[in-house]
Write a structure and sequence with these properties.
The protein is mostly helical. About 55% of the residues lie in helices and about 5% in strands. The radius of gyration is 20 Å and the shape is globular. The mean pLDDT is about 95. The protein binds adenosine-5'-triphosphate and L-tryptophanamide.
């Protein structure tokens, strides 16, 4: 609780110039829904992003752009704490302490570590390995009750709970034990080119992923080229991974149920279906893109948002940090 209200914390890595439709539907769209009921902290997790090599100029630009994307999607800078992770030193500080309460074996089981080590076999750094501990620090610093994320983050939430419970069992009630908030339909949006793998910001094949900032023409084209199957029947089914994914996207952006969507496309081919999905995505993203352009023309405003965010987040984080340091036995 921050002001007697339950707390939410979540974050996205500034690892690309635009977030994906997966990030939007899996995470951000829920942040917007939850911001009226909870005290929310939304972070741009740049410390996490450097577990993969980033060009400095691009990282700086991506952070500012991601902030504008948060705001353009409807995150309210007055109601919420929006901040850049590296602006609050307590994240790195608590991550170090929690590293000493986390087992190598626990971290070695993380599927994201295994996936990313395969993708970046020339840079399997220690940060990539301890990435979940930093995420645990992000969450526990703010005593978050709820963490809205896509289903790929389930395992990281479990290890966060384990670390918090272990720490509490030694030192008493220091950390709130957080729960995940994972959407039903859009928990895992898949690549349009390989519907067996997750749509991801850092996918080298741009056709697999729809960026929030893609133009209407590009969105329509990418969906038209999306991998489906030879069955030509719009329905939800086993092994119809591509069609299932498009149905999930369609339902998430239009708020329709899967049954209604299947009924709507009865007797229609994949061409009509893909056109409708493309148009629905364009309609959902266009107003966001317009707001994004306006915000990017107002750098002073963006700067004022992240500066105020750093101050507010820092104050909350320092309270937890003080408690932790005393419990561990540091002189404070
Ligand atoms: P990267 O490609 O750099 O690893 P990413 O696109 O996987 O990044 P993150 O910044 O790691 O995205 O994740 C931000 C949020 O978006 C997390 O809550 C994550 O669960 C969610 N998310 C990411 N990809 C998807 C997806 N394909 N479907 C649903 N949610 C997703
Ligand atoms: N690990 C997440 C990004 C992330 C996060 C967080 C999400 C870092 N810190 C705190 C929720 C809460 C990812 O890789 N998608």
């Amino acid at each position: 609780m921050i002001n007697g209200r339950k707390v939410i914390l979540s974050g996205i890595q500034p690892s690309s110039s635009s977030i994906t439709l997966g990030n939007y539907l899996g995470a951000l769209i829920n942040w917007v829904k939850l911001q009226n009921e909870y005290d929310c902290c939304f972070s741009i997790v740049d410390l996490h992003a450097i577990t993969v090599r980033q060009a400095p100029q691009e990282l700086r630009a991506n952070c500012l752009s991601l902030l504008a994307q948060y705001l353009a999607c409807g995150i309210d800078a007055q109601k919420n704490i929006i901040f850049i992770q590296s602006h609050v030193p307590a994240h790195a500080e608590l991550a170090w302490i929690l590293n000493c309460y986390t087992q190598m074996g626990e971290l070695a089981r993380m599927t994201q570590f295994k996936d990313k080590s395969k993708k970046h076999h020339d840079n399997i750094n220690a940060g990539l390995f301890t990435y979940p501990v930093l995420m645990a620090a992000d969450i526990l610093l703010y005593q978050a009750d709820l963490v809205p994320v896509g289903s790929d983050q389930k395992q990281h939430l479990e290890i966060t709970r384990d670390i918090a419970e272990r720490f509490n069992s030694i030192y008493g009630d220091v950390f709130t034990i957080p729960d995940g908030y994972i959407p039903k339909n859009a928990a895992r949006i898949m690549s349009l080119q390989d519907p067996l793998s997750k749509m991801s910001k850092s996918d080298p094949n741009p056709n697999g992923c729809i960026a929030l900032l893609d133009s209407p023409e590009v969105i329509i084209k990418k969906i038209k080229r999306a991998v489906t199957d030879s069955d030509a029947h719009v329905c939800y089914g086993e092994e119809k991974y591509g069609v299932n994914n498009l149905l999930n996207i369609y339902c998430a952006v239009t708020s329709k149920s899967i049954e209604d969507a299947v009924f709507e496309f009865e007797g229609k081919g994949y061409g009509d279906f893909k056109r409708a999905v493309g148009e629905a995505v364009v309609e959902a993203l266009s107003p966001i893109q317009q707001r994004y352009c306006d915000l990017m023309n107002n750098r002073d405003y963006l700067e004022s948002v992240y500066k105020a965010g750093a101050q507010k987040a820092g104050a909350v984080a320092d309270r937890t940090m003080n408690k932790v340091k005393k419990k561990v036995g540091f002189i404070v």
